[in-house]
C-alpha cells in the first residue's frame, strides 16, 4: 500500500503542542513586560517629583528648616506625597536635604539627596 504524502494526525498534534508551549511563553513574557512598564512609569514620575522638590529647596531664598517637612504635588495625573528631611552638615556651611516621594499608599518610590550651601551668616 502506498503511503500518502503529508503529516499524520499524531505529527500535527505534536506540532500544535509545541506551538502552544511557545505561545504561552510569549504571553507570559508580554505580561511581565507590561508590569515592568507600569513600575518604570511610576518610578520615573516619582523621581521627577523628587527633583522638583529638590529644585525648590535649592532655589528658595531661605534654606528649608531643620527637621522633617512634607507636602503633596500633582504630576502625571496623580497626587504624590513627599517628605523632606533637612539637617546641618558638620561644618555648618551647608545642609543635607533628603527627599522621599511616595504615591501615598506605601513606602517611598523615589529617594534623592542634595547638599545646599548656606550663605555666609545664614543658619536655620
TrEMBL record:
Principal subcellular localization: membrane
Keywords annotated in UniProt: Cell inner membrane, Cell membrane, Membrane, Methylation, Transmembrane, Transmembrane helix
Subcellular location, record wording: Cell inner membrane
Membrane association type: Single-pass membrane protein
A single BP term in Gene Ontology: protein secretion by the type II secretion system
Region described as Disordered: 57-79
Domain Type II secretion system protein GspI C-terminal: 40-110
KW Cell cycle (keyword) present: no
GO CC terms, sorted: plasma membrane; type II protein secretion system complex
Keyword Secreted assigned: no
Record family assignment: Belongs to the GSP I family.
Record protein name field: Putative general secretion pathway protein I
Organism annotation: termite gut metagenome
Amino acid at each position: 500500500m502506498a503511503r500518502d504524502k503529508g503529516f499524520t494526525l499524531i505529527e500535527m498534534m505534536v506540532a500544535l503542542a509545541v506551538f502552544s508551549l511557545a505561545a504561552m511563553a510569549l504571553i507570559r513574557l508580554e505580561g511581565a513586560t507590561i508590569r515592568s512598564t507600569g513600575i518604570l512609569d511610576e518610578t520615573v514620575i516619582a523621581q521627577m517629583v523628587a527633583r522638583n522638590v529638590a529644585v525648590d529647596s535649592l532655589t528658595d531664598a531661605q534654606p528649608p528648616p531643620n527637621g522633617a517637612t512634607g507636602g503633596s504635588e500633582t504630576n502625571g495625573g496623580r497626587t504624590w506625597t513627599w517628605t523632606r528631611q533637612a539637617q546641618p552638615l558638620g561644618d555648618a556651611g551647608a545642609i543635607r536635604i533628603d527627599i522621599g516621594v511616595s504615591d501615598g499608599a506605601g513606602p517611598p518610590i523615589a529617594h534623592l539627596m542634595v547638599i545646599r550651601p548656606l550663605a555666609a551668616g545664614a543658619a536655620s
